[in-house]
Amino acid sequence: MTDTHALPVRIPTPRHYLMCPPRHFAVEYSINPWMDPSRPVDVELAMRQWTTLRDLYRELGHTVDEVPPQPGLPDMVFAANSGTVVDGRVLGSRFRAPQRAAEAEHFRRWFVEHGFRDVTMPRQINEAEGDFAWTGGLLLAGTGFRTDPGAHAEAQETLGVPVVSLHLVDERYYHLDTALFVLQPEQEAMRAQVAYYPEAFSPGSQRVLRRLFPDAVIANAADAECFGLNGVSDGRHVVLPVETESTGLAGRIAERGYEVRFVDISELRKAGGGPKCCTLEIRK
């Protein structure tokens, strides 16, 4: 039994999120192993699930802005892939799949129209917070399937923060945000807390993660398969797919003093997305 008196006191921090409603959501092509165009998609259900996620963020005290969805861009709901914002600097995205390429300009325009003056569009393939995770002191950067390794150096130069490269080796976890998320950011790297699935990473990257985050929450295969590592934390409240209650990940996170809130995002998972995929964080 967990000694609740020994749990650390977790303080939530108000966040600013950017999201895009899935009004045009569909699975019309396959650009990751989760996408099967032959499976029916219920757009209304996807909208209800997305709305529940958005409303939960607002209930927790966070600001949520919305980018208007565009016809012909069914994956635009996955806003995390469209920009990385640190200290008000914006590094946009450049998608590997041509089906998603046009999304980048819609998000770039949103940032410019909302007063962001330091907006840079990348030259390298860069799928933004899909492959970039800010720990408060370091930018963890994934590569292996989508984002080019050269984008890591470009991010460091553009955002002015140190970058640590991590190599993904399992095609099911094609983005960093399907295999790792930050529970508690801290300026000192080893004080930050993350959760991750080791088998998604190369042996060298696993060693790096163990060195950087000795107190990490370690996920198993069942946790990863339900997109349990595609979570969102405000430092106290952790938003996870409802399936993580039965896999045990939610319990392991709660044992660290966090309060887990569950969402059903199963319809959007048909395109390989979870809570974090739908959520771009704006850090001013």
From TrEMBL:
The active site is at H175 (proton donor), C277 (nucleophile). Keywords: Hydrolase. Gene3D superfamilies: L-arginine/glycine Amidinotransferase, Chain A. Belongs to the DDAH family. GO terms for molecular function: amino acid binding; dimethylargininase activity. It comes from Prauserella rugosa. The lineage of its organism: Bacteria, Bacillati, Actinomycetota, Actinomycetes, Pseudonocardiales. The keyword Hydrolase applies. This is N-dimethylarginine dimethylaminohydrolase. GO terms for biological process: arginine metabolic process; citrulline metabolic process; positive regulation of nitric oxide biosynthetic process. It comes from the Bacteria.
